[in-house]
Amino acid sequence: MITPDEALEIVLARTAKLAPEVVPLADAVGGVLAETVASDLDLPPFDKSAMDGYAVRREDLARLPAELAMLEELPAGVAPTRSLAAGTCAKIMTGAPVPPGADTVIPVEDTQALPGGRVRILRAVAGRPCICVRGEDVRQGATVLERGHVVRPAEVGLLASVGRERVTIGRRPGVAVLATGDELVSVSAVPGPGQIRNSNSSSLLACCRRAGVPADNLGVARDNKPDLRAKIADGLRRNVLLVSGGVSMGEWDLVPAVFEELGVAVHFATIRMKPGKPTLFATHGERLVFGLPGNPVSTLVAFRLFVWPALRKMMGHPEPAPPPVEADLANKVIIRGDRTAYMPGDLRYENERWVAHAIETRGSADLVGFCRANALLILNPGTYTPGRRVKAVPLEL
Ligand code: AMP
Ligand code: MG
Known about the structure:
The protein is α/β, with parallel strands linked by helices. It has four domains: 4-18 and 172-315, Molybdenum Cofactor Biosythetic Enzyme, Chain A, CATH 3.40.980; 20-43 and 136-170, Molybdopterin biosynthesis moea protein, domain 2 (Alpha-Beta Complex); 48-132, Molybdopterin biosynthesis moea protein, domain 3 (Molybdopterin biosynthesis moeA protein, domain 3, Beta Complex), CATH 2.170.190; 325-394, MoeA, C-terminal, domain IV (Beta-clip), CATH 2.40.340.10. Helices cover 18% and strands 32% of the residues. The strands form eight sheets. The chain has a six-stranded mixed sheet, with no helix packed on it. Strand 20 and strand 21 (287-292) form a beta hairpin. It starts with a helix and ends with a strand. The mean pLDDT is 97. The structure holds adenosine monophosphate (AMP) and magnesium ion.
């Protein structure tokens, strides 16, 4: 049986970056730039006041307080009509263009308005012109974002300020989600004897939404070959197919047999981990197929550890699988057996360090317990005493 690290290596080795696509700026957040972006203008585009106050000539302030005549008022968005001559000033708002001749803005709190359009300057802090100079952030034509940069809200703002209504990002893979099982009923139904609600389709679609990839719900395939064959064949038209359930060793676990019939090449079908042992990975040409364990917690753990990094790699993410974080264990834990445990944990910053509280749950079907976790603690078999440094995968997903 392969280890979780080996499994991830196999998945990523068979995952290729998709071709880029051009998207409207509003859809770019969460994507990865597939182009290097230059500014179409100087930023800021003009000498701009950083304060509400008065634009002045520093040489008029040799003796303080000084009295100046106000020429005009400059709200943001209004171009100055006059240059400052000796002994004059302009009232100016934050973001307004500084008039020609002015070299300093005096904040309003250091001034006093006088009758007859005159202004008294009380103080002038040396070395504080309160002006953002044209081009001081970036020059026209200079690179503002490199290819491979992840687009967050700040990048969206920068792209907007350099005039980019559309931008080229790594294409997001289309995902199909298929649940399997004769016992499954819809969320709206009240389960009869032996039935359970299909929760995995909902949670996996939610995972895809969080990962920023479009996903289609293929519903439920029943535990018979014709239904599985038809729905899996449909799912194979997407970049990634997620099949939940039906991949362990039970008599009704027909998914591997159907994969074989459809020419889907299976690369592994078990991983030495708990939960998530019956996790299957296969490919069909360039398409990826994951067989995720049916238990609701196992499915989420397998998605986070193997599917999420693959989706990120397809989108061109520079770090598809970020390394785990380190934390000090809060409580005693014993891991039995021979599989690496991914134990639900609560990661908290306490007394100036990260502390991981292991959470006892009722196992891989216990979504109630799992909802208290914000991390997976990676624990190999053995005894862990409080204070031990452990690795944890944050579940920010
Ligand atoms: P399986 O992997 O098909 O053997 O299923 C393992 C366990 O997960 C069984 O208890 C199933 O009833 C449960 N299970 C399978 N699919 C789902 C699903 N879509 N939603 C909730 N539970 C499921
Ligand atoms: Mg099943």
